[in-house]
Specification:
Layout (H helix, E strand, L loop, with lengths): L10 E10 L2 E7 L9 E2 L2 E3 L6 H13 L3 E12 L4 E10 L12 E7 L14 H12 L4
Parallel strand pairs: 1-6
Antiparallel strand pairs: 1-2, 1-4, 2-3, 2-7, 5-6
Bound molecules: 8-OXO-2'-deoxyguanosine-5'-triphosphate.
GO molecular function, one term: hydrolase activity
Catalytic activity: 8-oxo-dGTP + H2O = 8-oxo-dGMP + diphosphate + H(+)
Cofactor: Mg(2+)
């Protein structure tokens, strides 16, 4: 039987479609073991009482050492392991931000052009979200 997690029990994971100079940042997870080696949109769990956009900025600072700002929500949300759901925001680096480094949770980063978007093995559960980003990218996302 399939059980849908009730809205109130869901925990939002925010993922960043961090764009710079026409490229999207992909991050390779180093942990936990079942996700390690696969690629994701950097981000993390929204804490109680936190706005998703604030969580995004916090997670990108903690994980990548960057100073980023959210730009807009990518419509949709995608189920992860219960009780998590993935929501995605486009984001950009603020002027003067350090370049991203894999400080936490990741062991490799890649800036992907649209033509390279599917060159990395994304987490299966991220594929529909990346597809949505890709569709909007083609329509002038920057
Ligand atoms: N950040 C992120 N997490 C994802 C994606 N796809 C996906 O299945 N996940 C999973 C991995 C984790 O189980 C969960 C988010 O955990 P996390 O480890 O990134 O978040 P966090 O920093 O807040 O977690 P924590 O270590 O503080 O517990 O969502 C994705 O695209 N981005």
């Amino acid at each position: 039987m399939t059980r849908t997690t009730p809205e109130a029990e869901r925990i939002v994971v925010v993922g960043a479609a961090l764009l710079d100079d026409g490229r999207l940042l992909a991050a390779r997870r180093s942990a936990p073991a079942d996700l390690a080696g696969r690629w994701e949109l950097p981000g993390g769990k929204v804490e109680a009482g936190e706005r998703p956009e604030d969580a995004l900025v916090r997670e990108l600072r903690e994980e990548l050492g960057v100073d980023a700002e959210p730009v807009g929500r990518v419509p949709g949300q995608w189920p992860l392991r219960t009780p998590y759901v993935l929501q995605v925001w486009t984001a950009r680096l603020r002027p003067g931000s350090p370049a991203p480094s894999p400080l936490q949770d990741h062991d490799e980063l890649r800036w992907l052009t649209p033509a390279e978007l599917w060159d990395v093995p994304w987490l299966d559960q991220d594929v529909p979200a990346v597809r949505e980003v890709s569709a909007r990218w083609g329509a002038g996302l920057s």
